[in-house]
Amino acid sequence: MPQLIAGNWKMHGLAAEAQALARGVAAGATGLACELLVCPPAIHVAAVAQILSGTPVAVGGQDCHQALQGAHTGDIAAAMLRDAGGSWVILGHSERRHNHGETDELVREKVLAATEAGLTPIVCVGETEDHRVGGQETEIVGWQIAGSLPKPFTGVVAYEPVWAIGTGKTATEQDVAMMHAFIREELVRQFGDAGQGIRILYGGSMRPANAAALLAVPNVGGGLIGGASLKAGDFLAIAKAASA
Ligand code: PEP
User: Is 204 near ligand 1, meaning CB less than 6 Å away?
Assistant: First the structure.
């Protein structure tokens, strides 16, 4: 299976910047052996999807509501993302878990809504620094997988240690190898043979200088990239490392 290189643009960029970034990514996207995805802020999804239509770059959202529609002021339904040209959605990102109190149960409901609307979910899991210092990283991530992924699950898991997100601190290749092997074991324990085929992305300060080493770790099926996805050249350099 090709690696998936996914950019999480978070809450960055006005319309002109988002569109310029999409054009920059599209300009270098042909001929790569990985899958490419960008997840702009929801308000830019339609325009970015239009720019990227006909290119190898897919578009996704950064969140969706768990209900299919209804009185939910300020929220976005999975079907709306799909209608705007999205085919993926990031769910349970640690910033949503921490800033919006999202629980595993809520993330699981969102995964069901996304799947029903035809979106492929990327479900984020990962321990905090306190969990890691306390030796609880596998316990926490095991619970997040059990609680956030419905059965059956047709999507991707992203392992994102919270202490490595946006901090410049990257997990070592040994940390990543250990956690991805653990996540693979958990997926197989919880989903049987289907767990072998679930892609596991690594996310947390991935950049051109460390991408090749991280992407070569066993059980790493791609990267979820925040900061470095805001520069087309850096994002494409990571995509090239994934295609090598
Ligand atoms: C992220 O937020 O998903 C992420 C991995 O961010 P960064 O690459 O900036 O650490």
Answer: yes
**Nearest alpha carbon to residue 234 among 87, 28, 31:** 28
For the CA of 223, the closest atom of ligand 1 is 5
Q: Residues 164-192: what's their mean pLDDT?
A: 94
Cα–Cα distance measured from residue 50 to residue 155, given in angstroms and rounded to the nearest whole number: 24
Closest to 208 (Cα-Cα) out of 184, 232, 173, 180: 232
pTM beyond 0.90, yes or no? yes
pLDDT in tens, 9-22: 999 999 999 999 99
> Catalytic site residues?
93, 160
- Nearest-atom number in ligand 1 for the CA of 228 is 8
Q: Whose CA is nearest to atom 7 of ligand 1?
A: 226
Give 103-146 pLDDT, tens digit per residue.
Answer: 999 999 999 999 999 999 999 999 999 999 999 999 999 999 99
